[in-house]
Fold Small ribosomal subunit protein uS4c.
Amino acid sequence: MSRYRGPRFKKIRRLRALPGLVQRKKYRKLKFRPVDAKIPFRKKKKPYRIRLEEKQKIRFHYGLTERQLVRYIHIAGKSKGSTGQVLLQLLEMRLDNILFRLGMASTIPGARQLVNHRHILVNGHIVDIPSYRCKPRDIITIKDNERSFDLVKKSIASSAQNKLPKHLTISKNYTGRVKKIIDRPEVGLQIDEFLVVEYYSRQI
């Protein structure tokens, strides 16, 4: 599967809110220009550009291709409830994102690598698909070998100060549990999902 391999900090400075793309320590050190700062010779953003940037935030934060995001939009559109909210719930319940939110990986690309290398078990079975959709009452554990534990232990130690979202829990033996579907306020990305839905409603 293709994925973005270009400069990450360049994307973060342009789009601002991409905490899943780089390690938290490096992300905190980034200096952003104030939102209301006046930049000479820069025109006011057009509505299309605003919608496009919101769409790009979702793409680069969760590490999706354009085709994958369009597929999630179709699934969310056929589901009950707000399309934008369902879209964020689908993306937040991906296995690679769950590992990132639990602190088992320092970035979403790092979580994807853990899954691809078969270090992660869901309900006692190895899962090597990063897009696997986790469900309430799923139990996420680490493969029983020293290498897997070392990778996860280092990441959890570095993210110990970060607040865990309410829909997840993690025990001392590095066992994560999904308690429920994530609520909108717990989403880890600052995004206006309605602009993303509007962008695709004009494109598809």
